[in-house]
Each structure stands twice: as C-alpha cells, then as structure tokens.
Design a protein that fits this description.
seven-stranded mixed sheet; six-stranded mixed sheet; globular
C-alpha cells in the first residue's frame, strides 16, 4: 500500500508515492508554461494542471503493481485563481500568482477598506497578485464571465471539482486570496461586500487533512487509480513544506526553494503589528490553532529564465550526458574561484515581495564586464537569491525569535553550492532535507493521518521526515558575503527612482 502526494507548482507538477515509512516508491514530474498576453499578465490553461496530475498519477500507478495507492492529497502554490462554470470546466485561463494586472482594483479596494485593516483581517498586505483583485478585475472586464462563474477556485479546489468532488478549499490556500479572515477561519463578509464578490461563488473553507471524498470509477480510471481511493484536503505548498520538513511547533524554521522561495515558522498568535505590516510579513492558518509566519521572494523564476534563455550549450551537454542541465551548471560553478562574483543580480522578475512588496520591481544585473562568463553569471543569480534569503532570515528573526538553523528543501536547493551560498550570506546553519519535495511529503503525511496510517502528524514526521546533510557557514566567506549584502541592498534602494517611472 502507498500514499500519493502531489504538488502543483507555478511551473511544474510533481508527484511522489511513499510507503508507510516515508520511502519513495515512485515519482514523476511534468512541466507547463505560463503565457503573458499583455504586460503584467500571467496566465495558464487550467487544463494543464489537470492533465499534469493525470499523467503523473498514471505513470506512478503503473510502477506500483504491488503497492497500490490508497490515499492522495494535493499541495499547491497559492494566489492563483480559476473561474469555473457549472460544468466544472474553467471559463478562462487561470490568473496565475505572478499576474499583476489588477493595480486599479487594489486601489479601489483600499479606498473602501484601508490597507492596514485588510492586513489585520487577512494576514497579508494588499497586492495585485492575490485572487481577490483578479476576481474584481474579471467582474469589471468580463461581466458575462463573472455571472457564469460557479466557483472561483484555487488550484486544489479546481482539481477537486474536476474529480467529481465537492468544491472545498483548505484554510491555508484560502489565506492566499486576500478575502479570508484568519481569526475566524472563514471568508470575510466585510471584504466580500467591499469587493462586490458573492460568498456563494467561493468554495467551502475546510481544515487541511480532512477527507474530501473517494474517487468514483470514472475519475479513478482517469487517474489510473483504483475506485475508492481516499482524497484528502492538502494545503498551500509552504504549509506542507513545514510538515515535510518536520516543523510542527514554534521555534523551527523551514525554507521551500521553488519559483518563489519562502521562510516559514509557527507562532501561537497572529502578528499584525505595524512593524509586521511594514515589512510585509504574511500569516496563514496552520494546524491545531497555530499560525504560520511567512516571508518570501521570487527566486526560481529568475533561475528558470536564465537557464532557458542563456544556457543552450549547457542544455545540449546535459542531454548528451543524460543528466539535468542544473547538474552541468553546478559542475561548472565548482570550477570558479571561491567567494563572491561581485556581480549583483536582483531576482525580482515579477516584482519584489518581502520586505518591500513592490510589484513594479524588476530583475536587474550590476557588475557586468567583458570577463564575466555565463557560469559566473549563473552563480551570481544564486548569490542574489542568497542575499534575499539572508534578508528573509533577519526579517523572521525580528518578527518571531532568533534562530540558528533553517531546514531547506526544493528544486532551488539541490546543488551544494547554493546551500553554501545561503549559509555564508545569512550566517545560518542550513539543514537540507532528505527529500527535495517536502511539500509533497507533507501532504502525503496528511493523507496518511486521514486514513489511519499515522497516528497523527507528529507520528508521520517521526517516521518519514529526515535530514540529508548540514551545511555550516565558512567564517572567511561569511565576512565577504555579508559585506556584499550591504551593497546588494543599496542597489535595490538606488533603483527606487526608476521603479517610480515603471509602467506595468
């Protein structure tokens, strides 16, 4: 018997089947590509999500003839919203989490409810990326489509509907919409009224780990599974990353390194102070009445752009060797001198998040010279990510309590040199989890608890969550990188006049 965990990311869907001890039995991954019809837009055909899950489930199930899947749950990125009709099909492409078109709508909303009040209710500062602003935009620009919408779905509720199940949304994903009251753990009537959005057009909020239903014959066959597989409510990917990293109580810190990279820790209360608001600390609901404090920034989006656009030769070498292009690039980085490249890359391809929350910010490079190779520039991209990581560590320490270790997972943390960069720049010890897909493991643990495989979440963590290696800062390199940290932050601030003239 096995448990299937699926993670719907911004650029790829990953699935892993685990046995009851957390060992990987089979896995699969499918990419998809967003598109931008206009500046500031970021969309995806929602069927790409469903097709990716179908292909992954079938591929994994075919490998598990002796360990059939009995339960599954889905982890997903937040913010993305999909208008779905009564036929359970998407009416238009998904508004992705990198979509920043709804500036005017956010201004209209904050004219009715002050930004600080929105933050106190939802735990998130107003920003065009959140689902609510895109729903408002959709209602204004496509009133017929709005009227025809049965449910505005996050990725998970869209999949639930597509599999013939009830339209439900777990609390953590509800918290990524800008219309969920994190104190009441319900949709905010005050915000919905101000935005002109009807409650009945939203899914029913439920806790993560709750059984949603069982697959009927038709939908089980669609996924290549047996009829009766239990489907369990999952959660926001950083929520599940906490569980998969073994972070179940306050004092521990998790980092998920993906398209967006975020640090998360748990607290017993919501921090809605002026300082938390000013640095854009996000809060979302977790298990057992706890709250997850979340500070994040765009990361892998920049890496993916760099590799796709500038590393064709490395891709060909990787294909010839039968390895990942990232393995080839990591090998080339090891040939470079130790220490900073003194090239500064800001990874804000779709705006900055914490602590500035500025959607006008864009990626930038400073320090280019004729001597710079693409491999040095690739390292510099990860140096920029490490500088952002260091800022998030300092922010989290101020907002919660200081810490010396961070448990990290995700595709952006596969290469050892990236772990050392984060350790040297932040001064923290980095613990790399045994699985690069902690959100997948986390959601599988939830599914295992729901069907009685694990006694509780802690039991699942004890049996399945393991650390692969520990990376400590190098004292000499730490001094060099922390000196460059000040330069990096100054570069961002120096670009403020340019951002002020930027047109989205």
């Amino acid at each position: 018997m096995s448990i299937l965990g699926i993670d719907l990311g911004t650029g790829a869907c990953k699935g892993v089947a685990f046995d009851y001890a957390g060992n990987v039995l089979a896995k699969s991954e499918k990419d998809y590509q967003t598109f931008s019809a206009k500046p500031g837009w970021c969309e995806l055909d929602a069927e790409c999500f469903l097709n990716a899950i179908r292909d992954i489930s079938r591929e994994i199930s075919a490998k598990l003839t002796h360990d059939p899947i009995i339960a599954m749950a889905i982890s997903s990125h937040g913010e993305t919203i999909i208008p779905v009709g009564r036929d359970r099909k998407a009416l238009v492409p998904a508004f992705m989490n990198a979509d920043n078109r709804a500036f005017v709508e956010i201004e209209e909303l904050t004219a009715k409810i002050p930004a600080k009040r929105l933050y106190q209710i939802t735990g998130t500062p107003p920003h065009p990326m959140y689902a609510l602003s895109n729903i408002m935009w959709f209602k204004k620009h496509n009133p017929q489509g709005y009227a025809a919408t049965y449910k505005f779905c996050s990725c998970e509720d869209y999949i639930m509907l597509s599999l013939g199940l009830d339209p439900v949304c777990n609390y953590s994903n509800c918290c990524r919409t800008l219309m969920f009251d994190i104190h009441k753990r319900d949709w905010s009537d005050e915000i919905l009224y101000a935005a002109g959005v009807e409650r009945e057009k939203l899914s029913v909020p439920i806790p993560s780990g709750q059984v949603v239903g069982k697959l009927d014959r038709e939908h089980a066959a669609f996924l290549g599974l047996s009829e009766g597989v239990t489907v369990v409510s999952g959660g926001f990917d950083h929520f599940n990353g906490l569980i998969g990293s073994g972070v179940i109580k306050p004092g521990l810190v998790s980092c998920s390194a993906g398209s967006y990279e975020g640090l998360t820790t748990l607290t017993t209360e919501v921090n809605s102070s002026d300082e938390a608001y000013d640095c854009c600390l996000n809060t979302f609901c977790h298990l057992d009445g706890l709250y997850a404090n979340f500070a994040y920034f765009p990361a892998g989006l920049c890496t993916k752009w760099f590799v796709n656009e500038l590393c064709g030769e490395d891709r060909m070498a990787a294909e010839k060797e039968g390895v990942s292009v990232y393995e080839v690039l990591a090998r080339e980085v090891q040939k470079l001198p130790q220490g900073p490249t003194d090239i500064f890359v800001t990874p804000h391809m779709v705006g900055s998040c914490c602590p500035y929350n500025d959607p006008r910010a864009r990626g930038s490079i400073y320090g280019l010279s004729p001597a710079v190779s693409r491999h040095a520039l690739y390292k510099a991209v990860y140096e920029g990510i490490a500088h952002e990581f260091a800022m998030m560590c300092d922010l989290m320490a101020r907002m919660t309590s200081d810490f010396e270790k961070v448990r990290i997972n995700g595709g952006g943390a596969r290469s050892d040199f990236t772990l050392h960069l984060r350790a040297n720049t932040s001064g923290r010890i980095i613990e790399q989890m045994d699985t690069n897909e902690a959100p997948v493991l986390g959601v599988a643990i939830l599914a295992g608890v729901a069907v009685g495989i694990f006694k509780n979440v802690q039991d699942g963590i004890d049996k399945a969550a393991r650390c692969r290696q520990t990376v400590e800062p190098d004292p000499q390199l730490k001094k060099l990188y922390q000196k460059n940290q000040k330069i990096y932050e100054e570069i961002y601030h120096s670009l403020a006049p340019v951002r002020g003239m930027w047109r989205i």
